[in-house]
Design goal:
Elements: E1 6-12, H1 18-26, E2 43-46, E3 53-57, H2 69-81, E4 87-95, H3 99-116, E5 120-125, H4 127-132, H5 139-146, E6 149-152, H6 161-168, H7 185-199, H8 205-217, H9 222-240, H10 243-260, H11 267-285, H12 288-304, H13 306-320, H14 328-333, H15 338-344, H16 351-360, H17 370-380, E7 385-386, E8 391-392, H18 393-419, H19 441-475, H20 487-499, H21 506-514, H22 521-534, H23 542-548, H24 553-565, H25 570-580, H26 583-611
Parallel strand pairs: 1-3, 1-4, 4-5, 5-6
Antiparallel strand pairs: 2-3, 7-8
Length: about 600
């Protein structure tokens, strides 16, 4: 619906640098990645140079004849936007290094814009890559052939962006021709081939460079070894890179608590500040640097072009479990957060494999589980190293628990795919391999920072509400004199029999119960409970409280297994029901994964008891 605001549409194929250009024009931290499926919704933002102009970023698509669910979002929204009288201009981004691939889609866009009477401008992105290799690109000739303006730009370096802004200031002065208005798709495809040959860069320097790297990363031996090594470094970095920042946050919170709490005269307020704020929320904040590191490493893999290669490597083994190589992308995205991962599954063409991917994503070890894993691993796994410091025991434990969740997800989808009948016609596996590129560090750092802030603000509201309730229940009616006799103790003893088979008392039972609102709430709840028990001692270091509580290592391992399998937060379940269009599937997954997690944690506890 028109809203009276001047709009410019930004559309392009995947891997064309469209989202990076959107970031540069708007200053927003829109997610940038090098594979299909990363931009799953229409993004909007005011342009920095033209504040009265709203830039609308559509999901990347290869054609206006949609195949995947994600492409359908782009096509439907684009066709609807062309009817909006507030839309003044359409910008179509193409990859100048892969002109033929981009031009077919570009010609479709030009044709539809001409039919709707909308001016369109073609932005030949990645011109910096061609300049670096001294490869020519005839923008003037291509502009004459297309009948629209063609500008050479670089979203990464900013080259040509100023000229683009000047062009956008006078959209009414750009004529709208009707050169391709009546051309069918079949003729457009042939036209794209001819235009690419006439005006595109000559030579195969870029292709040779990519082929050399692919011969290593996609080799049957070196490709598998490098994939395993890269994944291992990903999880090792969660501990090693974030450790100094975690120590700094813990020290800062401890010093702040020691300074603030004694200054509060009212005892109830002082106890609340100590127990709930520093004990609950503070215990959670300590683990935020790991979220930043995790998002940063994944961003490097995405932006470099390696992620698509990893999907190709994983296609053959994933087929055994009823999935596709394209399932790897949303599954690894689920390591950061399940919600965007579920959206990213739209890029999977096959409806059946998309549903199976939905089932696997909640078992991926998301960042909300990361504080829980870190807390338990730090409490039960020694911080020593082996092989001259190359292997850290805690990092190895994190690596194992992450891949344990992934393995369970694969086993579940493998069993379901063999038990259920195939009601869908599967489509062939086709994946574009983008060129290797040096990652843009600044956008990745900015995205990691924003992701961490979003995680804090999103989880912080829930954690504050839960810790407030937990503190009130645990502090009254005896003002924290005896936690076991508080209202919280009474409620905890009611649910204690459920978790007694894995050696957990009522305190951990309460923390598990509240974690279904959000996984990270487990840390805040436990921090509040131990904060009330510990009075003014060790308000932030929750690990020390757990170690002092004499929790058996078998119970700690059982907790790790439970959180690795049990379905994630309520938000994940809601998005899953919406995207899968099946509430029954979501309910079955909630119940099934909880039962599986409960049974598996009991088995782990019993086996650990035999060895201990």
């Amino acid at each position: 619906m028109p809203d009276g605001r001047r709009k410019t549409l930004l559309i392009g194929s995947p891997n064309s640098g469209k989202s990076l250009l959107f970031n540069r024009l708007t200053g927003m931290s829109h997610k940038v990645a090098n594979f299909p499926g990363i931009t799953v919704d229409v993004g909007m933002g005011a342009m920095q140079a033209l504040p009265d102009r709203q830039l609308v970023d559509f999901p990347g698509t290869y054609s206006l004849q949609a195949i995947s669910a994600e492409e359908q979002v782009a096509v439907v929204q684009f066709e609807r936007a062309l009817e909006d009288p507030d839309v003044e201009q359409v910008l179509c981004v193409i990859d100048a290094t892969r002109l033929e691939k981009s031009l077919y889609f570009t010609l479709q866009v030009i044709r539809d814009c001409q039919r709707s009477g909308k001016p369109v401008m073609v932005l030949a992105n990645m011109i910096d890559v061609l300049d670096r290799h001294d490869l020519p690109f005839d923008t003037v000739g291509l502009s004459d052939a297309l009948g629209v303006a063609v500008l050479a730009v670089s979203a990464r370096s900013g080259k040509g962006v100023a000229a683009l802004v000047e062009q956008l200031k006078t959209p009414d002065g750009i004529p709208v021709s009707a050169k391709f208005a009546g051309t069918p798709d079949e003729l457009l495809r042939g036209e794209a081939h001819q235009l690419a040959r006439r005006f595109g860069p000559k030579g195969d320097i870029l292709l040779k460079s990519q082929t050399r790297l692919d011969s290593f990363f996609l080799h049957s031996v070196t490709g598998g070894v490098s994939f395993f090594f890269i994944m291992y470094l990903l999880f090792q970095s969660i501990f090693t890179w974030s450790a100094p920042a975690m120590d700094a946050v813990e020290s800062l919170l401890g010093a702040l608590a020691g300074f603030v709490v004694p200054m509060i005269g009212n005892q109830v307020v002082a106890d609340f500040t100590s127990d709930a704020l520093f004990g609950g929320i503070g215990a959670f904040l300590v683990f935020v640097p790991q979220i930043f590191v995790l998002t940063f490493i994944i961003g490097l893999l995405e932006d470099s072009g390696y992620m698509a290669r990893a999907a190709l490597i994983c296609h053959k083994p994933l087929r055994v479990f009823g999935l596709t190589g394209k399932s790897f992308i949303p599954m690894l995205s689920g390591v950061a957060c399940a919600i965007p991962a579920i959206y990213a599954a739209r890029a999977i063409d096959s409806p059946r494999k998309r549903l199976l991917t939905y089932m696997a994503i909640p078992l991926m070890p998301c960042s909300a589980r990361l504080p829980v894993y870190t807390l338990l691993i730090a409490a039960f796994i020694p911080a020593g190293t082996a092989l001259g410091g190359l292997v850290g025991w805690q990092g190895l434990a994190m690596f194992c628990i992450y891949f344990f969740g992934m393995l369970v997800g694969l086993l579940v989808t493998g069993i379901v795919s063999r038990m259920s009948a195939d009601h869908y016609t599967d489509l062939p596996f086709v994946l574009e391999l983008p060129p290797y590129r040096v990652p843009g560090i600044v956008p990745i750092v900015r995205n990691s920072w924003n992701r961490s802030k979003h995680f804090i603000t999103k989880a912080g509201k829930i954690i504050f509400a839960v810790t407030l309730v937990i503190w009130v229940l645990g502090y009254f009616p005896n003002y924290g004199a005896n936690l076991g006799e508080s209202w919280l103790g009474t409620l905890g003893h009611w649910i204690e029999p459920v978790f007694e088979p894995i050696g957990l008392d009522w305190r951990y039972g309460v923390a598990i119960f509240t974690s279904f609102l959000a996984r990270e709430v487990f840390v805040g709840t436990l921090g509040t409970i131990f904060g009330i028990e510990g009075a003014d001692e060790n308000m932030v270091p929750l690990v020390q409280h757990i170690q002092a509580s004499d929790l058996a290592i078998g119970s700690g391992l059982a907790l790790l297994v439970f959180f690795a399998i049990a379905l994630q937060c309520v938000s994940t379940a809601a998005i899953l029901a919406k995207e899968s269009e099946s509430r029954s599937l979501t309910v079955k997954m909630l119940v099934g994964y909880f039962v599986l997690a409960y049974v598996a944690s009991i088995l782990v506890y019993q086996v650990a008891g035999l060895f201990s």
